[in-house]
Amino acid sequence: MSRKFAISDTCFIIDWSYYKRRECLVKLFDIVLIPEQVLLEVEDERSISWISLQLARGKMQLFTPSPSDLREAERLILEVASRPYLKRIDIPEALCLIVARRINAIVLTENRGALLAAKLLKELKGVTVWRALEVIRESLVRGIIKVTSEKGVKDIFMEYERDTSHVFPKRELEKAVKEVLRCLGMKR
Amino acid sequence: MSSKGTANKDLIENFWREEIEFRRIRRESADWSFIEKQPPRIKAALEYYIETGDLYVASRIAGVTVGRMNELRKKAGIPNVA
Predict the structure, then answer these.
(1) pTM of the shown model
(2) Would you call A137 helix, strand, or coil by DSSP?
(3) Which of A12, A17, A93, A169 could form a disulfide with A47 if both were Cys (CB 3.0 to 4.6 A apart)?
């Protein structure tokens, strides 16, 4: 059976480590890869101590990109920049997209440029990008976070917003709540 | 235009509409008196973040790590809209 990998960029993991239910991430995936460049950008105690603990437990894995990964990421940055309808991406998310494509991992990022590029670029076909919204949705659907009511589902998302100074887009949040309720067989 | 082409066009239009909406949320939530008091690089970085929502480039403008930039974002009352 293949193991489930994710690869995280900095903006995702820094916010995520402030979430009180942050452990659900390491229950959802077998291994979360943390690129070396990402680790260097984390400096607050709460984030770095949690990430270090997960690295020690083997739930996270330090990932050192190869020179060819970096070259490929640079090429992707320029490819995205050459298309005016895409939003620019930078090295952290480009690297995640390239590695995810190669090893069939899910990209964890809040970067909207990466989200759009994965949906529109042929070369990224098959690459899945999850934000905190999708990670929480999946944790609820798979019963990693347990709830018993519609209000409970909404509260879980709101909790993340409070813990991390985050705002989920209203329409997408409603869609995610609806999806969770459908999967859990709860009526609205 | 094929149905796939139309779907992509809708996706792109919706994406850029959301960008405008999310920028408005960041701008309206920001604590501008905090931002105005910051040294030039930090102030420019926070303003850049409000415009784009891009934490990595904002951190390079400020000359700090992404982690430190995220702390500044929170102190400035700017939500991460995504």
Answers:
(1) 0.95
(2) helix
(3) A17
